[in-house]
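Minutes, project check-in
Item: structure for the 263-residue chain
Input as provided by the requester:
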Amino acid sequence: MSKLLLNTLFENVRYSTADFTKHYHDTYTIGLTYNGVLKSYNSYESYESYEYSVRINNPGEVHAGKSKEWSHVNFYPTVEVMTNLYEQIFHDRKTPFFKRHIIEDKILFTKLHHFFDSYFKNEDEILIESNLIDALSHLILNSTIYTKKYNDIFEDKKIIKNTYEFINDSIDTNFTLETLASNVNLSKFHFLRLFKKDFGLTPHAFIINERLNRANNLIQNGHSISSASVQVGFNDQSHFTRNFKKYFGYTPSYLQKNSNIIL
């Protein structure tokens, strides 16, 4: 596998009818719809992903959705991958952010299709990497709407950033609302109001999401499901499994059996 794609999750799913609760990723989500439809929404808009459309979510964007006979491929490139490629193109180390959600671009669709096809067929590394760079550079050159300096994805949202760092320093802690509010010098009322307004999730949903993202990475890297769930603060494995499926659309055992590819 190309070094660019180490620890990158791929999904290749046929006829999904799953619903996805509000969640976010600390990576990009880039995918293609081949059949069916995904009705998705976030704080700003709702949209539908039909046949031959390209879907994009930027890191930290809260989104949810309902699928119907949805056949699609996804992958989750890291901020580091996208920033490095942007720097190679423009000689400026910045992180690109893209037009939200649906991009109608037949050339981009074709380039991404060639990349996914070569990856799933386990072609030569040089071909996979060439197709990856060809597709992502087209995306960056044609669909970037703004950039940020390379830093934390929540850098422009101080309360979110401080809370994110505080939670990640001790992910397995049972946080109280008072503890989280005190960490950013706010009352519980103002912390709740500003947090949900700035991010689109409640603090509780944010903590669950962050724990699940961390557990997802642990399972991809060979940890057992029980070990991953305990390490991120779930004492009840059935509770962990229910939340995992609600957020990602598949169970942790399904991820474990298919390594880093969801089939």
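Outcome recorded: The chain has two domains: 3-149, 158-248.
No further action items on this chain.
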